[in-house]
Specification:
Blueprint (H helix, E strand, L loop, with lengths): L5 E2 L23 E2 H16 L5 H8 L3 H13 L3 E3 L6 E3 L1 H12 L2 H17 L2 E8 L2 E8 L22 H9 L2 H18 L12 H14 L2 E4 L6 E9 L5 E10 L10 H19 L11
Antiparallel strand pairs: 1-2, 3-4, 5-6, 5-9, 7-8, 8-9
């Protein structure tokens, strides 16, 4: 059975309460062991970045397979963990996405971004969305619809976009440390070399050198653009939101039809997007507690 016993403080443990000699000892708070164990499992799945078999999770968490099974059943029932029906492997469930999005909304920076995104969508008539770097790549966490938005293109919350063929992906490719994107970049370059599906005249990088050159150009411009990447008749431009150290927190993207959205990097829409990202970046500088992409050693 799963141990729901409270964690008792050790006898004779030093007190963390009070001040000075003779101060009354403050008894440490009790915790529920099973909750801590559940989060140990979640931490392991987060670090793995992919669904894993029960045996590997048991080895990684130090739990016996039989005891781990109790936890996985409960975590699956509430949607925090999901089991792949084909492989039987366990990974993060849909409820973790909901937790992440709501958690981000509680930071002032993201709240400020949401408000300004709505204003930009209403002003331009185009779809505006916010993306962060998730466990599997650039992930959509919020979108605002404009009057010209088409239902034919559905970027759902939680959708993961490619690095090379999306404006948001190119933005993260430009601003993230190379070790963090190297695996995804190599896989996409390999897929592109095999498929040979790029249209003539495409600016999609075909090598790591071309990707690095594109990243440098994006950083210099403070903006990324991608035409016909996700849909042949759509274009998008994206601008970064940075924290007080210059690390990327998120990317704001505006997307529309090629012949409708003005995607000129020096045009009025790009100027408004840069203004939005600059104002939200100012919020990030004033609020350094906003979570950022982790550093790599």
């Amino acid at each position: 059975m799963v141990d729901d016993q409270p964690i008792e403080p050790e006898r004779g443990a030093p007190s963390t309460g009070g001040s000075g000699e003779g101060a009354p000892a403050r008894r440490p708070r009790k915790g529920i062991q099973s909750i801590l164990t559940g989060f140990r499992i979640l931490d392991f799945l987060i670090a793995a970045r992919r669904p894993l078999p029960l045996k590997q999770i048991a080895e990684g968490t130090g739990l016996t397979p039989s005891k781990l099974q109790f936890y996985l059943v409960s975590l699956t029932e509430v949607g925090v963990v999901a089991q792949d029906r084909r492989t039987g492997h366990y990974g993060l469930g849909p409820y973790t996405l909901q937790l992440g999005i709501v958690g981000l909304q509680q930071f002032d920076v993201y709240g400020a971004a949401f408000d300004r995104m709505r204003e930009l969508a209403e002003e331009t008539g185009h779809t505006v969305f916010l993306g962060v770097w998730g466990d599997t790549g650039p992930t959509i966490i919020h979108r605002a619809e404009g009057g010209l938005s088409q239902s034919i293109f559905e970027l759902k919350l939680g959708a993961v976009l490619p690095l090379l063929t999306s404006a948001l992906g190119r933005l993260f490719m430009a601003y993230l440390p190379e070790p963090l994107i190297q695996g995804s970049l190599d896989r996409e370059l390999q897929d592109l070399s095999r498929s040979r599906m790029l249209p003539e005249g495409s600016d999609t990088p075909r090598s790591r050198t071309e990707a690095q050159d594109m990243g440098a150009a994006i950083r210099a411009a403070g903006l990324s653009r991608c035409r016909g990447g996700l849909l042949s008749d759509h274009t998008a431009i994206s601008a970064p939101i940075l924290d007080h150290t210059g690390r990327i927190l998120a990317g704001v993207t505006i997307m529309g039809h090629v012949n409708v959205l003005n995607d000129d990097p020096e045009g009025p829409v790009a100027a408004r997007l840069r203004e939005l990202s600059a104002r939200v970046t100012e919020e990030a500088v004033r609020n350094p507690m906003t979570p950022a992409v982790p550093r790599t050693e």
